[in-house]
Design brief:
Length: about 700
């Protein structure tokens, strides 16, 4: 998509609508409120999907462990809420089939847990295979590419949205270590695209992408209960350009969706905040270096995950290409076995994340508060390590999956374990000068606070998100007091991850999948020039006269192109402009209906303005009004770094290369992305060869 022309068309359309003589005041009001109404509609749909998905995921996750007799859709915690004695309503599968106290009770529960985990994961993958392959994976990378202007047919379709929602509920509830936030962003983009079809003004591509961005932001807002975080996420991660209208639409969509969720309130919490925390005291200044150290560790751990995950994905591609559902079936079984025997591993990862943020009190019933600090710390390290390995393998399998919640949970486990260690250290050496702030405080160090910092820092290490993540963590916990430690952890995690040269998971995935996305943060340091990009490439061009309908149809049949450069003639090659293939087809269809006898393959097309010296003949069609004469041009010697800057700044789909107005070449955004990737790959291979052939390497051998 060409942002410049699409934005110009949008401005012309709005000007035309304002100048319509017969436009009533009611129609004018409707036109002005269309953006607001469309965002509200998308938000309501997303809120409903969020409520259904939350309830379904909770049911799937809880159903693996057992059943509540009177309320089968409830897990053990909700089924037995308020009961101090043994809960008679809830049965594990071993108790249900073998009876309570039976010797095979534990084995029966284990078999059912693994079987149901495997079945849910397999059905999720099979649904993607049967109904929409686009529903697998996270979707954030592809949504970023679509919002930047690229077209992917059926990726935002209705079947994709339904399959993604259904598969996400099963995959996240099956125990496979994947998250729901990436899928929710994809679902939100689908909702935005489908909602845009209900409103006439969203038929233009640039306008439609405003609502797609708003829907994606609303999807993240629904997943975290963080409307402002969703808006900043859309600006920081999804959008290539700042657009105030997109900002407002995203905010309206996110707030509407979250308000709908809180109004329904299926868990009867009475709060918008998912994991509200209320600690007895604030953090201390001696903890700031500890938060920074935790951030560095989490940033390195997140980068380690990125490296391992992409290596597994590359290893998987040739081996499981035709066995993707089978692979997920095996993964579901292995995950079920490991989760069953892992401390804190049997329940929902999202619910356990909320427990990690809490502070233990004498009346706490949380599982992580039932053992001594040292035992809990060891269990958290075991659980976090196993979850990290499962997480690294699961993301990239053929089922709906996201990175955010698993990264948060794993970071929170390591963070809480670190907090427990610091608390034990403080209690053992209370007289040391750095702990002087802890006088008269029984529990000076709060492990839950370290879990919050570790969660945010780990996710930064994985994704390189910063500003939006700090806001999301605040909205997720409602803890404004710990915003400074979270920001410190995030900044040091980002610094550590970037310091070792590992990119974020989204950038790695975009490069691996060769998606035509031009990162607005992209820099290119190379001496190449514009003519190097198109060297050896042949171009299909049109001349001002002597082009026929049949000739253009033959060109379009040979290769799917978006448009053609228009030259004066093939000898002088004076560049007159650029014409869109889509506009040519539309104009010819209109001319065919207008003309008596229509147009045939022998009809000539003129792309220059007729004059008295060269009048339009009866066998010619004037298409000069379609030629874009104000296109972007550069010299062949223009540095590629400057060409990159033009693409990033102006959002053009293509740039003409001309020398003294004579056509030399044509650079599309895809051409530039492919060229830069090839250069970077060659430089990387040269570095590997230099390292392999270095004297130090030879000496080691």
């Amino acid at each position: 998509m060409d942002w410049i022309n699409s934005q110009a068309e949008q401005v012309e359309r709005e000007a035309f609508e304002k100048n319509r003589v017969r436009k009533t005041s009611a129609m004018n009001a409707l036109s002005q409120t269309e953006s607001f109404v469309s965002a509200v509609v998308a938000g309501l749909i997303l809120g409903f999907i969020g409520v259904v998905a939350d309830a379904s995921s909770h049911f799937v996750s809880a159903f693996r462990n057992g059943v509540c007799l009177n309320y089968f859709w409830l897990g053990k915690e909700l089924c037995c809420a308020g009961l101090e004695e043994d809960c008679e309503l809830y049965y594990t599968w071993g108790e249900f089939f073998a009876g309570r106290g039976n010797r095979v009770e534990g084995f029966t529960s284990f078999v059912f847990y693994v079987a149901l985990s495997t079945a849910f994961a397999t059905v999720s993958s099979f649904a993607c295979k049967s109904y929409s392959a686009y529903a697998s994976g996270g979707g954030i990378n592809e949504v970023k590419t679509i919002i930047s202007g690229h077209h992917v047919k059926r990726y935002l379709g209705g079947w994709t949205m339904v399959t993604k929602t259904f598969g996400m509920c099963l995959s996240t509830g099956s125990g496979v270590v994947v998250g729901k936030e990436g899928p929710f962003v994809h679902i939100g983009a689908c909702v935005g695209d489908l909602t845009a079809k209900l409103f006439p003004s969203y038929r233009l591509e640039a306008k439609k992408r405003e609502l797609i961005s708003a829907g994606a932001a609303g999807g993240l807002a629904v997943a975290f209960g963080a409307p402002v975080g969703g808006v900043i996420f859309a600006l920081e991660e999804l959008s290539s350009f700042y657009n105030f209208k997109t900002l407002m639409s995203a905010l309206i969509c996110g707030v509407t969706a979250v308000l709908f969720q809180s109004k329904v309130d299926i868990w009867h919490t009475g709060r918008i905040v998912q994991f509200s925390v209320n600690y007895e005291h604030d953090w201390h200044f001696f903890e700031l270096p500890l938060f920074a150290a935790l951030g560095i560790f989490s940033g390195l751990l997140g980068s380690f995950y990125n490296v391992i995950n992409i290596k597994i994905i590359r290893w998987r591609k040739p081996r499981f290409k035709n066995w993707r559902v089978t692979e997920v079936c095996i993964l579901g079984a292995v995950s079920g076995i490991i989760n069953y025997f892992t401390p804190y591993g049997r329940g929902s990862l999202l619910e356990f994340l909320g427990a990690l943020f809490q502070d233990c009190t004498p009346s706490s019933t949380l599982e992580i508060c039932q053992s001594s600090d040292m035992v809990t710390m060891a269990n958290l390290l075991i659980c976090g390590t196993l979850k990290l390995l499962l997480f690294a393998y699961a993301v990239g399998c053929f089922l709906p999956s996201g990175n955010l919640v698993p990264a948060l949970a794993i970071g929170a486990m390591y963070g809480r374990a670190f907090g427990l260690f610091i608390r034990a250290l403080q209690q053992s050496y209370q007289d040391v000068f750095i702990f002087t702030e802890c006088v008269d405080q029984q529990f000076c160090v709060i492990p839950g606070a370290y879990a919050i910092v570790g969660a945010g820092a780990m996710l930064t290490g994985v994704t390189r998100m910063s500003i939006c993540l700090a806001i999301i963590m605040f909205e997720l916990t409602g803890s404004l007091e710990y915003l400074v430690p979270v920001i410190i952890g995030i900044l040091f995690a980002k610094w550590a991850g970037e310091g070792i040269g590992v990119e974020g998971i989204y950038e790695i995935a975009i490069e691996e999948n060769k998606l035509p996305f031009l990162d607005p943060k992209k820099e290119f340091y190379h001496h190449s020039v514009a003519q190097d990009v198109y060297k050896g490439k042949e171009f299909m061009v049109l001349t001002a006269r002597n082009c026929t309908v049949g000739g253009i149809n033959d060109l379009l049949a040979k290769k799917n192109v978006a448009g053609f450069p228009v030259l004066s003639n093939l000898d002088e090659k004076v560049l007159l402009g650029y014409v869109s293939a889509k506009k040519i087809s539309q104009s010819l269809q209109a001319e065919n209906m207008r003309r008596h006898g229509g147009v045939d393959n022998g009809t000539f097309l003129r792309f220059s303005v007729p004059s008295e010296a060269e009048p339009l003949s009866h066998n010619e069609v004037d298409l000069s009004q379609l030629v874009e004469s104000s296109m972007l041009q550069v010299e062949p010697s223009c540095p590629v770094s400057r060409v990159l800057y033009i693409f990033k700044s102006l959002g053009s789909r293509h740039i003409m290369v001309a020398r003294c107005s004579r056509f030399e070449g044509f650079i599309s955004k895809k051409d530039l992305i492919t060229f830069m990737r090839n250069i970077e790959h060659e430089e990387h291979e040269e570095e590997k060869e230099l390292i392999a052939g270095s004297p130090l390497k030879k000496k080691d051998h």
